[in-house]
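Sequence in, structure out.
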Amino acid sequence: MLNIGCHLSSSKGFKNMGKEALSIDANTFQFFSRNPRGSKAKAVDKNDTDALIEILKDNNFAPVLAHAPYTLNACSNDAGLREFAKNTMASDLEIMEYIPGNLYNFHPGSHVGQGVETAIDFITDMLNSILDEKYNTTVLLETMSGKGSEVGSSFEEIRTIIDRVELNHKLGVCLDTCHIYSAGYDIVNDLEGVLEKFDKIIGLERLKAVHLNDSMMPFNSRKDRHEKIGKGTIGLDAVIKFINHPKLCHLPFYLETPNELDGYAAEIKLLRENFNDIK
């Protein structure tokens, strides 16, 4: 079974996101925990979340993935923005308890001139202050493309963050195919080598989710430009090999391609047709 979905609008409510996912033959989905460019989260309707839980159970969904807002920067040089990041993530994890056992993804952030070491200190300070055994959500660090002063474009940086977090059994990784290709990990010509490196540095047991994207930009460009599946520099053949790899095929895949719902439906159909269920 290929576990695949796309990004859906949370403004429609949890139950409707589940129904919308089913309408395009998806068995998971991603959503923003709140306005991606803002700070406010909608009040939780327990009847709505309970209805989603029933949909997930009845249709054998893979874990759903909440994405933190883009405005969350845990390693900002502004103390107020770091406090905002901390409060936002803490609030989001409380909301995720209404749909326990799922995933929460965030961008490690940008150090804006302070340097990677200082940035990692800020990120781990935030995680150490928030993570708690009471939470039933796994928090994922997303691999980044390395544009500007982004943190997390190397496996080593991700590993350092994990190592400095006390409750790091609550942490995992979301690998973004566009991002790592742009960051210099050649998943087109050397997927085995990339996975071996990931396993050696981070550990494949930490890999909990994949953002499945093609890339508008060339290999090692350090640019973050997602493209539709098969229309970019990664290409359809490499994507098909990726989803069928025995070390990856069990993971949930979340499309973040530049599409509307019908475009996502077409990509899901294409990928299901090219997925080998016998592993």
